[in-house]
From TrEMBL:
This is LacI family DNA-binding transcriptional regulator. Pfam families: LacI, Peripla_BP_3. The keyword Transcription applies. It comes from the Bacteria.
Amino acid sequence: MGQKITIRDVAREAQVSIATVSKALNGVDVVRPETKKRIVEAAKNLHYVPNLRGKQLKAQRTKMLGFYTHTIVGPFFSVLVQAISQEAERFGYGVSIIISADKNVLRNHMFGHTVDGLIGFEDMIDVSDLAAIKREGLKAVFIDRLICDEGISSITFDSFQAGKQLTDYLLSLNHNKIAFFKGPQGVYDSEERFRGYLASLKEHGIPLESNYIVDGDFNEQTSYKRVIDLLEKLSKKDYPTAIIGGNDLSALGIIQGIFAKGYQVPADFSVVGFDNIDALRYFKPSLTTIDNPIEEQGKQAVKVLVDLINEQGSGASYQLPTRLIERESTRMIE
């Protein structure tokens, strides 16, 4: 292995002092332009890489942000992670993606001084973890979870209103037998969407039918099996006329299950979802859904977190608006 090039080698090549090299490469405006140019060229020719670890220790900064989740499977996460990484790069940060259901792994990353701040997804952080985050002074932004404290912010969608709006829309199409495929228990978006559904039914005087509440787990395959089970369990006169998938993947599974039973969408059932994922462009009938600005959520999470790290803001809750997109998977019934 060759000997590592040091700042001393750059100084020797450029025929200046080590202090002058340090100032030139760190943007200190006391070095003459022609001298700085010579130093930069010397560093480039020698393939000199600054000792970032040393600089980080001095500044007590890692210039890394952590993003944790137990999975990144699905189209939602690809958009979110890409938005986070691109925005972080714009601010001069890298992103450490922590994928684990093991809380000890998560704690090691959180409190091991490997990141300057944390973007949290999923409900793995409990009350004691939050207390430790505050005690350690770690800055954090939570997605899909409503938390707010001095150094902690959250960015959520208006999922309650989205669930209500989608149910109101189906009721306006004369559907009063509406099934709801819930997402995972305890997930903020899932609970809020379901709460909006319940509020809409109550507002319109529609009684809740327990058979119409199904666990879809935000999963295409699970929802596919569960809708088949539902249609086999109920008599045709008790079928729902419309089905709300807890997210778009769930809705796509529901549509495939309906096709597998020999029925059509929207001729026999109207189906809707949430998120407006990119993959919808490849499916027919095109899905009526709620558009959640996933990319904007990722970008804003980084902006808010960087402000917290730089002590240019304090913890706050931010809620992003949603909108209904009407497509081919719904119809009015007589």
